[in-house]
Write a structure and sequence with these properties.
Layout: E1 2-5, H1 11-20, E2 26-29, H2 40-43, E3 53-56, E4 59-62, H3 64-74, H4 85-113, H5 122-143, H6 155-158, H7 161-170, H8 177-188, H9 190-195
Parallel strand pairs: 1-2
Antiparallel strand pairs: 1-3, 3-4
Length: 211
Amino acid sequence: MRLHHIPGSRSMRVLWLLEEMGARPEVREWSLTDGSLRSPEFRALSPAGRIPALEVDGRVIFESGAIVQYLTETRAGFAPPPGTLERAEFLEWLHFAETQGGLLQNLNIQHIFLRPESARSAALMKLDTRRLDLTMRAMEAHLTGREWLLAEFSAADCMFGFNIDAMFRFVRAEGCPALSAWAARCRARPAYGRAMDGTLYTRDFYEVPDA
């Protein structure tokens, strides 16, 4: 098993789940900035040139959500069985993580990667920050009075591995005590600590600039 990975990126979701499962994949690291994700070698693994890709069971799987779902269907535990109502809830949160992840990616591009800085849009930053805040408040409501997204810890929680380090960089934790407590429980898991091998961020918080 080989995971194609960038520290602090969406591939952390997969690495965290594999750590929880007791798997120790070979990890090949790539870079966001050196152009290697556009190379024919990597595009043969992931057609859109995006991390992660997982070589497993004699084939390559790309898209983090697809990888996580496949792993739960072929390895024991970490998700309710297919065909159950609990599975539907699991799949909802699996895909909600990517809805939120897309907003975080947009904010990463605007706050960190887009050059020159004059090309950045304060209006878009404000819009995506508001949208991110809505997803966080939905999670806050769901997590109030419970420890995990489902009845017990699952791969749905792992799908937020990329998001946990990112969301509070753009929306302050005040007003989200249940979400903050859930994030702290996730960070306290030994497997999370092993998988969290880097971050994209150089600041604790990124303010939206004035238009």
